[in-house]
């Protein structure tokens, strides 16, 4: 099964990222699909993912701060709002059900793989412009979309997790983010952006973030 | 009539800002109160205010990017969302009713007084930390609250504008922002923050932003 | 007399900046040339220029922070070092000779025209990338070069000031900065950068900073 | 042997960093002392350290951009200048002698431990203020000083490396940076800074960067 069509930049960047397959077909992901991922690994992932989501939200806030148009600001603001007012409270509830108290969540020690990834994304945004930031954010948003689309209907122990990312809402979000990226690129660099030297830097941002996603799964893997 | 009570930092910073009175009792404000402000001046203000709101929203996005706690992120995200999804579309509609088309709004040339103010706030946030940013943002949020509270019920030609800022929703926002600032200060600098050298820098941020508010009214004044 | 040749981007941006002539032929500049600029105006300029140089140095530091290559970092670091270890101490000595003590300099109140300009440049750099920052920095560096080249040999009361910017060292700096900008542009956007949408944004950065230079002269003018 | 006295903040932060000993007495360091570190490990370290130095220099540039006083700017500018114009060219020469060509250096793939550390430091600086940045930079500057002071005179295969950091110039730099940090803290937070909530955040910055230093040695270790 091929990845969903989330737009032009996604296709170009994914095809240039050596570890895209290693990320989206990681043993951790296969464990989610088959349900054979040990619970302890999933809980380790959930706790680190909470810390990840904080910095990921901050990165989306930075997208809004670095936006040029009202449409870009609105898209980033909506994502940030959904993350902080829906996703993160939901994440806290899911963790609580799994036996991780909010206090335990808050005191999670951020492992190096998590630090590497989140700070890479934020720093890309601060040091570069909105395009660097979007390229570094894309593997997480769209990779989870690709994983969710592939695993949809697998059922099993992790069906809730799979449904979150395979479901229509999240797939729509991926299409929207893909379109936001394509529009942002064309608006600044024109329709021929893929042939500019800048395109190599952006693809490298995407590839590095993809590599750091692999490290994130590795960290949580059994 | 005294200013509303928006918390401790507001009271300290306002009392240390030489131009607070000049800002909140500016002839432009008095013109809004009496209804004698010429329409042309109001329209000039509205167009510049649209450009202002874009950068003001970006500054609130930066608050979220620089936040430490989920509560801070949620407060900033909610403000950013309200600004980009409610305030700015409303502003566009009000301008359209006043004869300023969306295209005209978009092509408004940002005057120097506007540039000075918005870039001062954003740069305070980028170069400093979240406290510098909040101190620079406060005069706008809370000053409009103080003006709205004072002018509430004046009626007249600008009753809508007055009601926006004098109304309960905006007054509640001011109380919330005041509390956000007080909590952010105590959380980082402790209850004795007002006696630290840092307090002088923050008060100077507030005072400078207040001065730039005066410049903003001057710019639009007849 | 035409402006010196500081490279391709300079020529393109200057020709697109409506107020380039107003900036480089401002009455203040003419007053420097003829020597008829009142001393009080020159001192006002010197004091504000000290505050300007602090933020201008910070902006060059930001160029180094946002650089991709060692060569870019070295160029920015050399400029920053010259500014902080040579220019600013020199400026302090010149002001002292003119009767402005270091304490008076330090307590100069930054006027709005100064705030507008410096914060615009810094914020362009923080919110954009290194190209936005360079485009916003260029009018100051290269405009003073163009003014210095034109006024060189005028003699008179302000001969020292003229010689600083008209002299070989500063002219070489302008050629180097022009080359740095051209290389940075090509390296990221390719040789056809001038035809990309991005080129319009960068030209607008240059034009706005040029406009703010006019405001700076206006502020100090008699 | 105890660490050298690099000032008050250093002593406080070091004593609160659980992995300070693990960092400064890492097996890699012991291998440098005894000379038994395999050459391949040292070369791996050198190549990654080149990439590290690029981002470390960018972080010192950011210190200058975020400085409040001319003295702070001058200190940061001098460090940045030494790094980009002396240290990095020297590093390139040392690597060349060791058989790593400049091209090979430039194409070094940055490993995750390196990414984690450098982006953590830069992001601390962008999202926080100059104090966050200095606290995150301190373990590298001062830890190498502590290691150099302890290993000085060990001789052996890595005597050059040891002498670089144990020698008088580098030790003086550590004293200067320690003083810069102490002054920056007092200037903003007053003499009682160590009792403020902020002190815990800064100590955590130092502790995290220390932890990432351990990861850096681990990465290069045989």
3D architecture notes:
The structure is a homotetramer of 222-residue chains. By secondary structure, chain A is mostly helical. The first copy, chain A, has one domain (16-220): Heme Oxygenase, Chain A. Helix content of chain A is 78%, strand content 0%. The first copy, chain A, has eleven helices and no strands. Chain A has helices at residues 8-15, 20-24, 27-34, 39-65, 70-97, 102-106, 112-127, 130-151, 159-166, 168-189, 197-220. In chain A, helix 4 packs antiparallel against helix 5, helix 4 packs parallel to helix 7 (112-127) and helix 4 (39-65) runs antiparallel to helix 8. The longest helix of chain A has 28 residues, at 70-97. Chains in contact: A-B, A-C, A-D, B-C, B-D, C-D.
């Amino acid at each position: 099964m091929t990845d969903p069509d989330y737009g032009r930049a996604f296709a170009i960047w994914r095809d240039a990222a050596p570890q895209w397959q290693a990320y989206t077909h990681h043993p951790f992901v296969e464990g989610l699909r088959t349900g054979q991922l040990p619970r302890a690994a999933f809980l380790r992932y959930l706790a680190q993912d909470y810390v990840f989501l904080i910095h990921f939200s901050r990165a989306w806030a930075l997208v809004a701060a670095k936006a040029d148009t009202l449409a870009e600001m609105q898209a980033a603001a909506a994502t940030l709002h959904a993350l902080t007012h829906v996703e993160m409270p939901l994440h806290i509830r899911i963790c609580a059900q799994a036996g991780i108290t909010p206090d335990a969540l808050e005191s999670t020690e951020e492992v190096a793989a998590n630090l590497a990834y989140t700070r890479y994304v934020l720093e890309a945004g601060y040091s570069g412009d909105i395009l660097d930031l979007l390229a570094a954010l894309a593997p997480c948003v769209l990779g989870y979309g690709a994983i969710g689309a592939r695993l949809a209907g697998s059922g099993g122990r992790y069906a809730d997790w799979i449904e979150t990312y395979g479901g229509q809402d999240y797939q729509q979000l991926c299409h929207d983010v893909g379109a936001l990226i394509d529009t942002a690129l064309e608006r600044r660099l024109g329709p021929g952006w893929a042939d500019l030297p800048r395109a190599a830097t952006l693809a490298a941002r995407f590839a590095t973030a993809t590599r750091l996603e692999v490290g994130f799964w590795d960290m949580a893997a059994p």
